[in-house]
């Protein structure tokens, strides 16, 4: 059982979260050709080790998070909001700035 | 065996007699007894029959590894099989019975199996019944196995579980602490105290009913005084001490699974208590002080009643005041047995000690001498004599590399110690590979990176004082790791015996044929292990599966080491080269009831009720489940069946007007300057120019081009939309929009908020729908056809000032509206609408009529949009606008998805219109009713409009491909085959005149 330290809610059991997927994927533009979409959707790395992945705090703050997790050990290296704006706000708060 | 209860001593209360029932007979014990100790004191020798050969079995141990005294506890719905009598506390009226025997364990007809034992070696059943040649039996060999398997399985099982529902209640609980200490022996007690004194929050869990571990089995007063002092200190330090609680597994992130047996020891459980509590404990550090288990040796008939491990003999003597025998042979290969032998001698038994070692230091000789024990060095048991219980043994003496028969000894109790195995199970759960320590002849868990530490004999430390020290040492290490202050102490060294152990796993003399049991629960013998090797099974994992060694309810606690040693010998290598099997959770069995906790019956999943739930019930609704929702199914008038009710509701709605609770639809507020852009990207059809005050039906696809969901979205203002989704996909769509906005399209300034709970809705459908709503709104003008055209949206007020938003949209195919009010107003809205509907002889309709009308219209819903359907399959390809961008646009054009022969949405009608058919039927060409067929039926209904049954479903190529042909709707397990025709899915009012009118 994994505990994810949600930047908004604190450490919570993984049962509160929904798993998204590989966070390193750059989804193609909507007008990108089929083979680009094909590669993004179907050709996935099966990483053994540290992987950036998206999780949704679905039974919590409903924020999408980027979690760096070791797929072998479940060790979690970092958790940050997927949305860059939210991440910047949190950083600002952490530095004692105005939110 | 002539066991005797002693007049004094032990931890039993002689003032409290306890009557219990064993196999139909009333017996007595004392408070403080285990079932095993009470049976032993009553001289009950044969307590079970073995799995395969029905060999008589008695008590073999005093702990969780027990493999002989396995009994069934309780009766009726509370019958609990395969309970280890050693772990069952005695209570007034306890009902226990033997198992795997007929008529009873003492006289068992099945024991005839043991006469044919040589035929029942490992793999016997498979070899005999699976490969039989077909000519001999007239059927295929494997088919025969299918038949025989049932009989074999029936003959094999041990105890039988109750077939009735479990009447007991179980709880789930969660806990958090700094330090979890597993086991309350000397190491555990001391570790817990060290951590608690440094201010840590400590949980100490113990599977036994008393704290102390092996300290409970020592007779001296000094030890007992120390135990009580430690417990008092722990109490004072605020340690949470949980007895009757097993840490059955260790998981990621310091999580331990605990099973607390709350009432299993009580004659009458208070109603407010659960039977068991399943804990998920999150500990920052875990100290495993789970002790060690004594193992036996393999020799002839080593499973006879009257043979147990040495520690058990001492436990029964010192803890339960039962001297298990009068004439006792203690066989050992290590120092640990000497104190036990001395205790038995002091209690009046005549003790003979066989030590496999030829040279022993003076300290051991002194113990034996002082206790007046007759000591034979270089001697081991070769064969146990007597049936059903042991009455003597053949002794072997060292001869060259092996053993040779030497003499016979009479005895009524044989205690065996083949060495000790640290309980490394919990470490094994964390993926740790235990390392073989040849000097101590045991596996020891190496240190790991996780905050889990091993102390005491679980770490291979044998002496009690050293175990105390190891508790202090590990406790201090954990305190420091947690940032507290504690004086560091050295960890005692592994081992601690004055004389080295002499590994003895099996005693065998060539030419003697007796069964030497390795795994008593599955009747795996030493010969079975050798047979497996001869047949080519060299990996320990294969050995396990072929012989079933270690796969019984003890999970290999008893037999694994000896099995490994025998395999190593057969291969001609050392134990570490053979490996060790991985122990997996649970450490001891966990009841299914404890796993499920309170999540049963109506608590299995949450129940969602709409705000008009009570109102619907008052109107006579029969409810049904739609996902988690309770929704009206139909509103039967007196004497009506469900079919009559929904047909009437459908007819009434199409003729005048009907009202239906549609609150369960998903509703999402989509707000912000870029709301339009978001909708335009997720829906296949354009939303960029949707005017304010209009709604639009939309379809959204997944990235891979398959349909995700459909629904209508209403534009309330420049920046404010109200999206509805299907009931089934409401949560998924919400998650999807959040993902898009927070990950891919971070530049879009949009808020999405689920408002499913905030708005309650009713469909108002039928030719009189406008009249009904006009009478309910404060300003009837807003309802005029000009002001409120098809797909129009208004925000208005119902009479009495109820805020309301209405869209003119139709699922039924009639002139229809959906009206939504804030949830608290839901009954008030229905109280307005319903009398007006009644004025037009209208009705309330439920899910069944709703389904009938949408099937008539060929509208898709969750049953059709199952994730395998493309927008073209659903017949909605025109909704995908080629001139705009949307999610799934590229992938919906995959060649496979554009094939003309893909299953397409169609309508279905029976050839004989008097016939009915079922959803789930497979559509087959009439000349090929087999295999996967050509398509399938997703939903059926009786159509009042058409006067017969209809359905919708999918078939290869769609309805044009099958026009005029007769197909078979195959439903082999229910109705059989019905001839059907394929028609357009738009079966009712295909031009939509009624809807637009």
Can you offer a commentary on this structure?
The complex is a heterodimer of chains A (about 100) and B (about 1000). Chain A is about 20% helix and about 35% strand. Chain A is of the alpha+beta class and about 100 residues long. Chain A has a single domain, classed as Folate-binding superfamily (Folate-binding fold, 2-Layer Sandwich). Chain A has a four-stranded antiparallel beta sheet. A two-stranded antiparallel ribbon of chain A has the order 1-2. The radius of gyration of chain A is 15 Å and the shape is globular. The model of chain A has no long low-confidence stretch (mean pLDDT about 90). Chain B is elongated. Chain B has seven domains: about 1-165, Ubiquitin-like (UB roll) (Roll); about 170-290 and about 420-480, FAD/NAD(P)-binding domain; about 295-420, 3-Layer(bba) Sandwich (FAD/NAD(P)-binding domain), CATH 3.50.50.60; about 510-585, Arc Repressor Mutant, subunit A; about 615-665 and about 760-850, Gyrase A, domain 2, CATH 3.30.1360; about 665-755, Aminomethyltransferase beta-barrel domains (Alpha-Beta Plaits); about 900-995, Aminomethyltransferase beta-barrel domains (Elongation Factor Tu (Ef-tu), domain 3), CATH 2.40.30. Chain B has about 1000 residues and is of the alpha+beta class. In chain B, a hairpin with an 8-residue loop joins strand 42 and strand 43 (about 815-820). Residues about 135-140 of chain B have low confidence and may be disordered. Chain B contains 26 helices and 50 strands. In chain B, about 50% of the residues are buried. At the A-B interface, helix 1 and helix 2 of A face helix 20 of B.
